[in-house]
Design brief:
With about 120 residues, the protein is mainly beta. It has strands spanning about 1-5, 10-15, 20-25, 35-40, 45-50, 60, 70-75, 80-85, 90-100, 115, 120-124. The strands form two sheets. Strands 2, 4, 5, 6, 9, 10 and 11 form a seven-stranded mixed β-sheet that branches. Strands 1-3-8-7 form a four-stranded antiparallel β-sheet, with no helix packed on it. It is globular and about 40 Å long. The N and C termini lie far apart (about 40 Å).
Length: about 120
C-alpha cells in the first residue's frame, strides 16, 4: 500500500508560481514511479509530469515543458511540482499518483495509487 498526500495548491494570478508537494509513504517498490496529473472541471484527467524515483528520469507533457518542473527529495520521500508562469488554463485539481511499473509515463491508467488532490486556481 502507498499513501500520498498533496499540498501546496492555492489561488494565484496569471504569471504567478506555485510549488506542489506530494509526501509519499508505504511500499517503496509500489512508488517507484510518481506522477502528477490534473483535472479541470468537465475534462478528463491528464498527465503533467512523472519521475522514476530510482534514477530521477523524468517525463513531461509536451505542452508544459519549460513551465513545470518535477523533482524529488528522497530523504523526505517527497516529490515536488514547480509551476511557473501559470495560466488560467492550468486551473484544476492536481493529483499525485504512484506505480511500481509503467506502460505509459503519463497515462492515468498506468498508476495504481492516488492522493486526494490539491486545488490550483489561476485567475486572469
Amino acid at each position: 500500500q502507498v499513501q500520498l498526500v498533496e499540498s501546496g495548491g492555492g489561488s494565484v494570478q496569471a504569471g504567478g508560481s506555485l510549488r506542489l508537494s506530494c509526501a509519499a509513504s508505504g511500499s517503496i517498490y509500489s512508488r517507484t514511479y510518481l506522477g502528477w496529473f490534473r483535472q479541470a472541471p468537465g475534462k478528463e484527467r491528464e498527465g503533467v509530469a512523472a519521475i522514476d524515483t530510482r534514477d530521477g528520469k523524468v517525463s513531461y507533457a509536451d505542452s508544459l515543458k519549460g513551465r513545470f518542473t518535477i523533482s524529488q527529495d528522497n530523504a523526505k520521500n517527497t516529490v515536488y511540482l514547480q509551476m511557473n508562469n501559470l495560466e488560467p488554463e492550468d486551473t484544476g485539481m492536481y493529483y499525485c499518483a504512484a506505480a511500481p511499473s509503467l506502460y505509459a509515463w503519463l497515462l492515468p491508467a498506468s498508476y495504481r495509487y492516488w492522493g486526494q488532490g490539491t486545488q490550483v486556481t489561476v485567475s486572469s
